[in-house]
């Protein structure tokens, strides 16, 4: 099922063509010279998002990512490969009391700068285009 998107990604797997999302570094945590995480602030932007709720957290991330890859690799209203932006963001959801993680996760893809004004529509109705305000992200 993912053969075509993977082939498309492989054909377009030029590190120079990956757009890094602009951010402001707020904090960097290291231990013995190894990076543990970074706290980053991203500006207001449009993202393609999918919320998944599988039995296992890892399964939700994997399936959400695969659906986003189909969108990136031509299953969109432009019919074009959209290009890779890094990182792909995973949002972990918590219960109402914020005391435990839920099975639901959101996997999100930052739309490249050239697509911010008019993002292609996804064919998959589970994927939605959202405009996020400035956002804090923890990255590792």
Automatic annotation (TrEMBL):
Any Pfam family matching the protein? SOUL
Kindly list the GO molecular function terms attached to this UniProt entry: heme binding
Which InterPro entries has this protein been placed in?
Reg_factor_effector_dom_sf, SOUL_heme-bd
The record's family statement is: Belongs to the HEBP family.
Write down what this protein is called: HEBP1 protein
Q: Which organism is it from?
A: Callaeas wilsoni (North Island kokako)
Q: What is the lineage of its organism?
A: Eukaryota, Metazoa, Chordata, Craniata, Vertebrata
